[in-house]
Amino acid sequence: MSRVGYREREVSFGHTVRAWTVGQLRRALDGVPDDTPIRVNVAETPGGDTVDEQVVIDAGFGQHRMAEDPPGTWRTDTQFGLDCEFPPGTYDTTVTDDYDDYDGDG
């Protein structure tokens, strides 16, 4: 008896990229007008070519707290971050409406 088909399995692989520095970003932005929006193409998977387009909405050294930190204290991130969001526009989404007359018959 022969079977035809396939089976999926997860495998680990190394993914190496080099994060840009602020200096590299400054050089890349040289000559770009100040009012130009910045678009970020966020990869969905490591090394993948499918991306979600996002726009930069904020930037800076973020702050966070750890569980063991005393109240009112904050740690500053060591990496400068760009905060992104989906571009302005109209998007489709699924919503669930509550109703009271559900009888269980579908």
Sheet with most strands: 3 strands, antiparallel
**Taking Cα atoms only, what radius of gyration do you get, to the nearest Å?**
23 Å
Number of strands: 5
Provide the helix percentage.
under 10%
In one word, what is the shape?
extended
Summed over residues and divided by their number, the pLDDT gives a mean of 83
* Content-based structural category: mainly beta
First-last Cα distance: 42 Å
Residue stretches low in confidence (pLDDT < 50, at least 5 long) are: none
Order of helices and strands: HEEEEE
Number of helices: 1
Q: Strand share of the residues?
A: 15-25%
Strand order of the largest sheet: 1-2-5
Quickly describe the structure.
The chain has one helix and five strands. The protein is mainly β and 106 residues long.
Question: What report would you give on this structure?
Answer:
By secondary structure, the protein is mainly beta. It contains one helix and five strands; from the N terminus they run αβββββ. It is extended and about 65 Å long.
